[in-house]
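Ticket #4471: structure output looks truncated?

Reporter: J.K.
Steps to reproduce: submitted the chain below (270 residues) through the standard prediction queue, then opened the result file.
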Amino acid sequence: MNAPPAIATLLLVAVVGLFLALIVMEKLHPLRAFSRDRLKAAFSTNTSAFLINNLIMSAVSASSLIMVAGAYSRHGLLANAPDGPAKWALSFILFDFAVYAWHFAGHRFEPLWRFHKVHHSDRTFQVSTGLRFHVFDQFLEVIVKCLCTVTIGVEAHVVIVCEVVRMLFVLFHHANITFPGEKLLSWLIITPSLHRAHHSTRRSQHDSNFGVVLAVWDMIFGTRKELTPKSVGLELIQAENLVQLFSLAFVTEERLAQVIHLVPRKRRDR
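Returned output as attached by the reporter:
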């Protein structure tokens, strides 16, 4: 049961529609008030990063995943499973767990954190924050997803649908909104309240809630935290434009702290 190309197209239209709808919702009923100048600067930086970095990497990611799936889809865990709703659902669950594990690694290991912290450098928390990534972080994620595609063993059309659905959730859980029933829904999927804690300025707080779509992984591995952060972004380092955003990966919090004598210890507070 091959998914017609129209499904992926409709999902992409849904991504754009959701992005615009969330912008309107944040404008009308924002959960947290950020200054107009800060929001404008963040939105400009985040969308520029997406257009220059992520748009390119999205094309590379899609083409790479299609090529890898076409060559190796018959050799993975689900290679012999009949193509249908059950295989699609199981594939999505396995991909979602893989992204959870990759996200956890991005916080746990310093070489990966150097690039992932670009995403956390936004001093606002709103839908465009979901577009803010370092190009090398995206490149490494493509490699991980290609390995997952080989291991899971699914066709290209399933991989692409999983990717687009994931994009929908990334935009959703970065939104500066709240809504009735969010607490209950957060036990099933990652909601803005859960992911807002993940963007806390404090390292001990933002090393949590690594899930992207399903909330179950944080519950299983004990990384779920329910809290309202006092502030979001990085404690010492800021990036206000695209050049600073790209360069941020080459500046560590420890080194900056040593230079300006703010923090006497060498290791981050976890």
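Triage note (M.O.): checked the attachment and the full token line is present. DSSP finds twelve helices and no strands in the chain.
Status: closed, working as intended.
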